């Protein structure tokens, strides 16, 4: 399903879904430069890139940079490279992000490299040594593989997504790759295809970047974003994927072989802790806590004044529902966990609260009252809340 993102040109993306969620890139070290504030949070929306200091109780915006297009997913690489999609077009860009000294006006953003790839890319994932970049092109039904070694931005190949449309028209009338998610071993990308109800396994061995498996999900699932569990081992034991259309989390048990990954579905659970999704709801992002004990999912279009953030405990690959908290706005498209593991950052497309930082309690549950917020007015009118938010 594509939920309208009003900051995107009318009609251009009317049938495409919001993009994720963590869904986060590789963690960086925010304290690697002693002249920087201890915590900076990067946020993007159509037409703008924002940088804010975060001190545990408030956001202080230090940069609002105008850019063309819709950088709805970005990846930051130390010390100053920012890779950005344009969900409205077919260009991929590298910006130089000078983070400054934390004072307003000291940070700068300048475009350095632009290249053409597939249209409608909504997620980027690095390989293990940050020499290749994989883009999931929701709008084009393809996967792009880029050479980014030495600051290059050269398209190596574009791979059409294999499969057939799912049963839920019009959201599944075509292929819609939504995320390129590198496994802990560093060999395989899982690429969730919302339109074809499958998970493509992209093998990076010998720099071939070939789809070696196409794993079906439950029909009508609409796989959007996923996480490998556990996240800090050589080989994951499970892969969890959020179904945007059916509002479920599918847990898949994994086995590694010389030629791929075996997958066996072991659990299906609602993204709503009550077990029942409201009519028209659309699950969004999913993140796994670094402790490998807790999973968090956003529930969108719930019909309430505020959508929700749901918490689940995970043990041995089995999910147990915790509780949900209100996100303070509508359409929470992406969420990410702070470097310390003590906060969740979340972006609501519509306010009143657009950027939100929630605390994480010792038991993994989320504080009902946010630690910090930024109102929608900081980003613009209705629909301009940040689709991307993460600490750098």
Structure in words:
The chain is 0% helix and 49% strand. The chain has one domain (20-391): Methylamine Dehydrogenase, Chain H, CATH 2.130.10.10. The chain has strands spanning 20-23, 40-45, 48-54, 59-66, 74-77, 81-84, 91-98, 108-116, 121-126, 132-137, 142-147, 154-160, 177-182, 188-193, 198-203, 210-216, 223-229, 238-243, 248-256, 261-270, 282-288, 294-300, 308-315, 318-326, 330-337, 343-350, 353-359, 372-375, 388-391. The chain is an all-beta fold and 392 residues long. Strands 4-3-2-29 form a four-stranded antiparallel beta sheet, with no helix packed on it. Strands 5-6-7-8 form a four-stranded antiparallel beta sheet, with no helix packed on it. It has no helices and 29 strands.
Output the CATH homologous superfamily.
YVTN repeat-like/Quinoprotein amine dehydrogenase
State the strand order across the main sheet.
4-3-2-29
Averaged pLDDT: 92
Distance between the termini: 30 Å
Structure characteristics:
mainly beta, 6-phosphogluconolactonase, Haem_d1_sf, 4-stranded antiparallel β-sheet, 0% helix, 392 residues, 29 strands
Summarize it.
The protein has 392 residues and is mainly beta. The chain has strands spanning 20-23, 40-45, 48-54, 59-66, 74-77, 81-84, 91-98, 108-116, 121-126, 132-137, 142-147, 154-160, 177-182, 188-193, 198-203, 210-216, 223-229, 238-243, 248-256, 261-270, 282-288, 294-300, 308-315, 318-326, 330-337, 343-350, 353-359, 372-375, 388-391. The protein has a single domain (20-391), classed as Methylamine Dehydrogenase, Chain H.
